[in-house]
Amino acid sequence: MPATIRDVARLAGVSEATVSRALRDLRHVAPETVEAVREAADRLGFVPSRNAAALATGRPKVVGVVTPLLTGWFYAAVLEGVDAALRRAGWATSLVNLAEPGGARRRLTAAELRAGQASAHVVIGFGLDADEQQVLRDVRAPLVSVGGRFAGVRGISIPEADAARLAVGHLLALGHRRIAHVGAVLDPGVLESVLGARREAWTTMLAEAGVAAPSWWFASGGLSIDGSRAAALQLLARPDRPTAVFAATDETAFGVLLAAQRLGLRVPEDLSVAGLDDHPYSAGYGLTTVRQSPAEQGARAADLLLADLGARRGAVSTAPAPVELVVRSSTAPPAA
């Protein structure tokens, strides 16, 4: 027989009402009582009913996650972090996946958000246009964005310009001056603001080093590996090619590495390549990059919403998520 709330109350030495309040993390239950109840529930394998909790509070213990894509590593990692934090608190995740078969994407609607019956939402901000951002605000439920901020909404993200400066600064410190950038130019929106911040940091760092970058040092590959490979092939086939490339993302960097291989360029002897993200495959490529942690950002976003909903004690930081330069074998001083 599954354990009941009565079993938990007996083991913890409290009333059934106290068990109910403790497992809902209501503020007027003493921390030591909450700990005793949770320990008893864990020992007995007791799982509280989310439906019962919703009836008691008038609010489903569900947080919706809106994502324009599931297959990208960043989106999946954010979702993993959100879900892990919610499960620890006894909450569930409701997914609103806007991706369609074949790579298309449907538009976000208020009806779809309300159908999920979520008490709050995490939105992975890449790729949502201004109208869709307004839909999210109009639902009037607690909301946090991850991976790009938009007006009127709290966000958990990395300091994009600082992250790019770490990568470009590393290449400059190695002695490179002919540093190209492979990225993308997209329609205005959250994703373009992220890419624009990285691109502007590259331009600024070169200017501060006394380097005037010609326009052809920037190549747009549309962010896909194939597109970045095609853009890098043109960039690196020139006789006055750069000695280093700062790629807007690690997946962009993978395309640059493939282009270098196709042209017979050795990395890092003939060409240094640095990315930004620390994709799960980056270590296998030996890619120097700037590490961010999407799962950590997702968990922090979930904790922020749980605090809003009274389901979590303590303050949650909204400061930019940390980034870290990770030096691997794809960068070295330029050839003499």
TrEMBL record:
Molecular functions per Gene Ontology: DNA-binding transcription factor activity; transcription cis-regulatory region binding
PROSITE patterns: HTH_LACI_1 (PS00356), HTH_LACI_2 (PS50932)
Recorded superkingdom: Bacteria
Keyword terms of this UniProt record: DNA-binding, Transcription, Transcription regulation
InterPro entries associated with the record: HTH_LacI, LacI/GalR-like_sensor, Lambda_DNA-bd_dom_sf, Peripla_BP_I
CDD domains, per database record: HTH_LacI, PBP1_LacI_sugar_binding-like
Pfam annotation, one family: Peripla_BP_3
Keyword Protease in annotation: no
SMART domains: HTH_LACI
Keyword Zinc: no
Residue stretches making up the HTH lacI-type domain: 3-57
PANTHER family: HTH-TYPE TRANSCRIPTIONAL REGULATOR GALS, LACI-RELATED TRANSCRIPTIONAL REPRESSOR
Protein's name in the database: LacI family transcriptional regulator
Originating organism: Amnibacterium kyonggiense
